[in-house]
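Notes to self after the call with IL:
- keep both proteins in one doc
- input above output, always
- annotate only the second one for now

Protein 1:
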Amino acid sequence: MTDKENTPVEAAVATETPAVAAVAEAPAATEVAAVSEAPATTADAPVVNKDEEKAKILKQVEFYFSDSNLPVDKFLSELVNKSKDGYVSIAKIASFKRMRDFKDNALIVEALRESKSLLEVSEDGLKVRRKVPVGPIDDYHNRSIYAKGFGEETPSLQLELEQYFGALGDVKQVRMRRKNGSNEFKGSVFVEYATLDEANKVGSSKLQFNGQDLLVMTKNEYCEMKAKQLGLDPNEIKKSQMSKGFGNEKKRPREEDTVEDLKGKVIRLSGITTGEGAGLREIKDAMKEHFRYGYVFWPKETSVIEVQIKDADKDAAKVVADLQAKNFEFNGIKPEITVVSDEDTQKFFDEKK
């Protein structure tokens, strides 16, 4: 939802992550005054625009429950499916990383009640759910465009892109695409619009951003272009992206995961070789016979894979011992299997975020 799969299909589409950065301002330097400071008044406090705050809250939660995110957001989908009526605790939603800046629970509830067509809040104000079932997973794919030519990333670029494409139609989300194996911005984006007509109109337009010409096309045209370059069936590229979410994005980690949760729960397999019929999908199939895996990190063109253990009753040491005892092999090779150190688990966690 970073894909690190080393197959032609996955290599065809680089990952992207919604790069939303909260930039904190440094506190102003202390000034030396000739007279005593006057007590702070309410006028000194920063003014928070309530309507703007509510708009940000609603936009974020509607994204969580959107057609493009909910079907591929494993954690949130599990919460929805566990509930008989589809409701999810607003307190749980408020604990998500991008919601933690919003401290006023009453304001969150008020904002969600203003959702026009997507969300509804329970009478007691404690839960929220979708009003309508999730649409077809390929629908948002057809409503999306590809654009390239944005140069280097800046802290404000995500907001600038949302405003730029928002002026051209009703934007649902903008995904900044990133290189496999890193967080480096590729200079291109996928943009989801509310309607197919909007996507087709923007996708066929000649656009400039900050004076630079953009390469723009519909996402379907992009998939066909990549398929032609790689000699693949366009449907294979589309299926690969749809199975992982909008634009092949990096899978969002479970919100409660911390680096401490992962310590002692990650293994490393070294000496992995690939080839026809021997890619990430095949090694996942081989691993699932022995344990439940979570996030799998396989940097492109390397022979090392790091895997999160999801079994509650198994730690990394136990899984390593089990695989070694069973002479685990893949593609005719017996890889070296070790427990990932706490220091390297921090790196794994940073990549997983």
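Protein 2 (the one to annotate):
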Amino acid sequence: AVIKLKDLCDLGRTSLFYALKEMGFKFKMTNSRRGSCEQSHVVSMRNVFLRKYIRNLESEIPHDFVFLDETWVFSRGATKRTWQNDRAKSLQQLIRLQM
């Protein structure tokens, strides 16, 4: 199989494999939690919660918080293995590394 990406490259499957390996990528198990935690709607909801939480702490009569639940990511909803570069520990770091 030959991969053609908008006339930028014309690589065979094996050549692409070796090129990715040389750039430091590994084909390994996907951590679906990493990508889910950095999705824009999750980040937005987390920011809203933290603003309310801090506002509560700074109020005259702050309410006590009790955390009862933990968010679980549906593990079967993502691919099992993907090409990953271990230099970045988060998607934000990955974006900064590419700039």
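Annotation: The chain is about 45% helix and 15% strand. Residues 40-58 form the longest helix (19 residues).
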